[in-house]
TrEMBL record:
PROSITE patterns: GNAT (PS51186). Keywords: Transferase. It comes from Eilatimonas milleporae. Transmembrane segments: none annotated. Residues 3-149 form the N-acetyltransferase domain. This is Acetyltransferase (GNAT) family protein. GO terms for molecular function: acyltransferase activity, transferring groups other than amino-acyl groups.
């Protein structure tokens, strides 16, 4: 269960690295620890961690605030998918974006075959844009965006 969101710090790295090591999270990019440590010192980069009182961290997200005021949601992961936790956490992440980060637009890219994530994004108001990305793995990623109230 998701309870509340906190800004992530270096103290959350064990959790982040543990999640990124899990093979079932096959749709996410993974960074080695030094890359996370560098990102945590980047003023444009914001880690957010979902917590619940009983279990501690239940998910994390990595956000980048852009010069144009928009936020890129670079990564979002929960440790127990498909139990409603990610939807609740993402809702809180969007509130964090419009509040603490004062963003009216949030965008992300998602592998086209990550149908669960795409469903959750759509459900929370993200819309597909015509933009498609292709990386070294040659898989197609769809760019989606969300606009605040
Ligand atoms: C993406 C992620 C954060 C979503 O969080 P979650 O806790 O799994 O999502 P929820 O349980 O809140 O909701 C899942 C929804 O997807 C639906 N769903 C489950 N499997 C599905 C599938 N294969 N295709 C489409 N929809 C699916 C569920 O029915 C549910 O829909 P509902 O809320 O309308 O009933 C989580 O799955 C995750 O961490 N995945 C691994 C990392 C990842 O892929 N991150 C996104 C990278 S862009």
């Amino acid at each position: 269960m998701f309870d509340h969101l906190e800004k992530g710090t270096v103290a959350d790295l064990d959790f982040v690295l543990l999640e990124e090591a899990r093979s079932e999270h096959r749709f996410i990019h993974r960074w080695p620890e030094p890359e996370h440590r560098r990102a945590l010192t980047d003023p444009a980069c914001h880690y957010v961690v979902g917590r619940n009182k009983a279990d501690g961290a239940i998910g994390y997200g990595i956000l980048f605030k852009q010069d144009d005021g928009a936020v890129e949601l670079r990564r979002i992961v929960v440790n127990q998918p498909n139990k409603g936790i990610g939807s609740a956490f993402l809702k809180a992440v969007l509130t964090y974006c419009t509040g603490a980060l004062q963003a009216q637009r949030v965008w992300l890219d998602v592998y086209e075959d990550n149908s669960r994530a795409r469903h959750v994004y759509e459900k929370l108001g993200f819309r597909e844009t015509p933009k498609r990305l292709k990386g070294d793995d040659s898989a197609t990623r769809i760019v989606m965006e969300w606009r605040g109230p």
